[in-house]
Amino acid sequence: MATPVSQATSTTTTGPATARSYALPMAAMTSLFFLFGAVTNFNDVLMPYLKDVCQLTDLQSSLVQFAFFGAYFLMSLPAGRVLERLGYKRGIVVGLLVMAAGALLFVPAANTRTFGVFLLGLSVLGAGVTLLQVAANPYVSVLGPASRAASRVSIVGVANNFGGTLSPLLGGMLLFGGSVALKARLASLPEAQRLAEEATLVKAPYVGLAIFLAVLAGVFFMLKLPEIEGMQADEESGTNDLAAASGRRSALDFRHLVLGVVAIFLYVGVEVGLGSFLIRYGEAQGITQLSAFTQSLVRGLNVATNFIAVLLGQPPAPIDTTAGFTKAVGAVMVASYWFGSLVGRVVGIPLLTRINDRKALVAVCAAAVAFVLASIATQGETALWLIVLCGLMNSIMWPVIFPLAIKGLGPFTKQGSSYLIMAIVGGAIVPLLMGLLATYGGGLRVAFLLPALCYAYLLYYSLSGYRVR
Fold first, then answer.
1. Angle (nearest 5°) at CA 452 between 382 and 46
2. Distance between the two ends of the chain, CA-based, in angstroms?
3. Which whole number is the average pLDDT over 29-52?
4. Which of 292, 346, 375, 458 is the most buried (most CB within 10 A)?
5. How confident is the model at residue 460 (pLDDT cuts 50, 70, 90)?
């Protein structure tokens, strides 16, 4: 998921105008954004895993994303009040400890194979991530010279994408991998016993995450982070103030902002929804023989993840590419989907300084609509890779839609930005609707019509809805 960026265009720091190094605090912030992406996108492999372990329908499994992203909607405003009392540094420490508590809830959830406890853990994790996001985003924007704010946001955005690309690979190895002997033993067990043992596979990664988060909280507690001033008031920024001229009293009086809130809602929803259902979509294709390209990609990435596994004390878990599409192969496809977003972010953000960003948005939205519809109309690996390509299209949507939506709001810019960030709840709702359609509306192909409609709305917004009126 694209990381929210600060709406400020001018920032200040305290202290005299002397050279000062922000390398250490910037490195600490970058680690947080890597963590955001890793924890968030791990849900894409957790969702099909829990579907099997807890014997769920597609609709029930989509509650994984609903529980996690619902926290953004519920916790955004309370998180702001918490930060007002604690400050940035202590707020980050509390957020990390809340995340650690959520990760530890996976232990009783796995022991009892209770889906409700898994959802509780995900909700607590999401609440901690929300607190960290609310603290870290403005902090990065003002951590250093205002002239370099955009580059700092780009750096942490790339770290976020990199974490989001790596975690599905590791998740696929930990949850769907394992030795041939282990797989054979599990397959020979009665179903209830097999599911109980498979449920325990999730404990190690989340206990490890909890320990890492607790250690990181200690590091931030001891770290001397510079105190910073808040963002410069919008009234002082010198931007055009249509609000005063028109007599409008709220950000919601601006049509382009309201349409932009819907656009962010659908963008986050479709990005999360496609990643969440990609493995299930692959299973529905009935692929018994992978292409040479896909086999080579899976084997290559599997070597890299096995190297990391050995460093973490895990035995190597080679993926069998001769068995056609499996969940382990699907995890690689999910990672490829998010890797496309990473590549698009690295290439696209500098490119947007040279081309018209709105026209670029038109192009990627139109391509995304075409890719999803073509995927629905085709079969096999082609259908899967067309969805993977949507990750590349998603990469520049947030950094273009967000500024278009808050343009011309004047003193209501911060209010409008708050609405846009709360619209991240689309990551909870759109996957849920896809699960509903997959379970009761005609299957996964029908469910994938919803992302096509979401992209169609984004195309409308890029053509007309963005206009300030």
1. 70
2. 30
3. 90
4. 458
5. very high
Q: Are 39 and 213 in contact (CB under 8 A)?
A: no
Question: What is the residue-wise DSSP string for 27-45?
Answer: HHHHHHHHHHHHHHHHHHH
User: Is 176's pLDDT higher than 70?
Assistant: yes
Which pLDDT score, from 0 to 100, does residue 261 have? 92
Are 409 and 267 in contact by the 8 Å Cβ rule? The answer is no
User: Where is pLDDT greater, at 462 or 24?
Assistant: 462
Lowest mean pLDDT among 231-235, 370-374, 386-390: 231-235
Single-letter residue type at 424: I
User: What pLDDT, on the 0 to 100 scale, is given for residue 103?
Assistant: 95
Contact 142, 231 (CB under 8 A): yes
Q: Which residues contact 359 (CB under 8 A, 6 or more apart)?
A: none
Q: Is 145 helix (H, G, I), strand (E, B) or coil?
A: coil
Whole-angstrom distance, CA of residue 304 vs CA of residue 165: 13
Encoded tokens for 460 = 């409308």
Contact status, residue 452 vs residue 387, Cβ threshold 8 Å: no
400 closest CA partner among 354, 361, 355: 361
Q: Within 13 Å and on the Cβ side, how many CA atoms surround 179?
A: 6
The two three-digit tokens of residue 338, written as one number = 């998010």
The answer to whether 175 and 52 are in contact (CB under 8 A) is no
Q: How far apart are CA 98 and CA 213, in angstroms?
A: 9
Q: What would the two tokens of residue 364 be? A: 């990627």
Whose structure tokens read 């924007």?
141
Rounded to the nearest 10 degrees, what angle do helices 149-176 and 203-222 cross at? 150
CB atoms within 10 A of CB 16: 5
Q: Which residue has the tokens 């509780």?
A: 120
- The answer to whether 94 and 131 are in contact (CB under 8 A) is yes
Structure tokens at 371: 């890719």
- Is it the case that residue 12 has pLDDT exceeding 50? no
- Which is nearest to 233 in space by CA: 418, 411, 417? 411
Across the chain, mean pLDDT equals 83
Task: Please tell me the predicted confidence (pLDDT) of residue 249.
Answer: 77
The DSSP 8-state label assigned to residue 411 in this structure reads G
Answer whether 177's CB lies under 8 Å from 328's CB: yes
> Do residues 37 and 164 lie in contact, with contact meaning Cβ atoms separated by under 8 Å?
yes
